[in-house]
Write a structure and sequence with these properties.
Helix content: 25-40%
Order of helices and strands: EHEHEHEHEHEHEHE
Strand order of the largest sheet: 5-4-3-6-7-8
Mean pLDDT: 97
Low-confidence stretches: none
Radius of gyration: 17 Å
Structural class: alpha/beta
Length: about 180
């Protein structure tokens, strides 16, 4: 018996490795109990401690091309041009992965250095606070085996936008807004 984290991953195993589907069982990941709505007073203290505004858009994950952050930054630039200074800042939280330099360059070229913030790696203990404090969590990844950040953000009660591809619709269920990841 083989365990898969999603139906999408199960289909990939069948297609790419010619495994009999009856030998694969899907068992979804779950989240830790602290990924839940957080007391507003705790969130207010966290925002003050981190210098965060009342409203912000959040991405949590590795900074790498597969996560489709170039499209997210382009979409954010368009949103900012439409909404102006009322646009909440975009916070990209996560460690640098492979080929991250072009994203930093893109932010500079679009003149978004004051609107898009790279906060680096976020500790596991702080993640629920980042999610719960966000106005919207955005996860436009091109491919995921499951998509834990989606489930974590939803567990914290944060409105979520994610891709309509690979396993992300499974992780999101009916609770998130699904978008075509390459449609700016």
């Amino acid at each position: 018996l083989i365990v898969s984290v999603s139906e999408h991953t199960k289909r990939d195993l069948v297609e790419y490795f010619d495994i009999n589907p009856s030998k694969i069982r899907v068992i979804y990941n779950s989240i830790a109990p602290d990924f839940q709505p957080v007391d507003p007073a705790i969130i207010a203290r966290f925002r003050t401690e981190k210098g965060l505004p009342e409203r912000y858009l959040l991405y949590v994950g590795t900074i790498e091309p597969r996560k489709n952050l170039a499209a997210l930054v382009t979409a954010y630039a368009r949103l900012r041009s439409q909404m102006g200074p009322e646009t909440p800042p975009l916070i990209l939280a996560g460690a640098k992965g492979w080929y991250y330099e072009p994203l930093f360059k893109q932010v500079r070229e679009l003149g978004l250095e004051h609107d898009v913030t790279f906060v680096g790696y976020v500790s596991r203990e702080e993640q629920p606070l980042w999610y719960a404090g966000a106005t919207v969590f955005v996860y436009p990844s091109l491919y995921e085996g499951f998509g834990m950040p989606i489930v974590e953000a939803l567990g914290c009660g944060t409105p979520t936008i994610t891709s309509n591809t690979s396993s992300m619709p499974e992780a999101a269920g009916t609770l998130a807004t699904l978008v075509a990841p390459q449609d700016i």
